[in-house]
Amino acid sequence: MNQTVGEVMTPNPLTVQPETPLSEAIKILAEKRISGLPVVDDEGALVGVISDTDLMWQETGVEPPPYIMFLDSVIYLENPKRYEKEIHKALGQTVGEVMTSKPITITPEQSMREAARVMHDKNIRRLPVIDTEAKVVGIITRGDIIRTMANG
Description:
7 helices, globular, 22% strand, CBS-domain, alpha+beta, 8 strands
């Protein structure tokens, strides 16, 4: 696996924008049989990723945070802020409301070995490939890495 990410990546991947309706993004994922899409702003710079994992909130909903009542007060046993984000994802109508912001990325010059390590360590299935201006130039997936190993 001596190749670079740029040699193996899928160039110019499909992208969506934060204001894209969630139903449209779901349709793209289903029709193209892919598990995620980079989310870009008007200039093509990466602002997030929407994946099948983000969409699971739409179906599963959110459990309320565990709490106890004590002297007419609610005492949360876990941080309720975390649940606000989950509720937002469960009720979101646009890509921007549901996407994962601050996605992990890689550059075309980096090695396939580095891409594999990042995906393994972070337990992610795809990495947006960005240039020096944070514009999406490609995408690399676990499948790409497996194919590279098989050919190499």
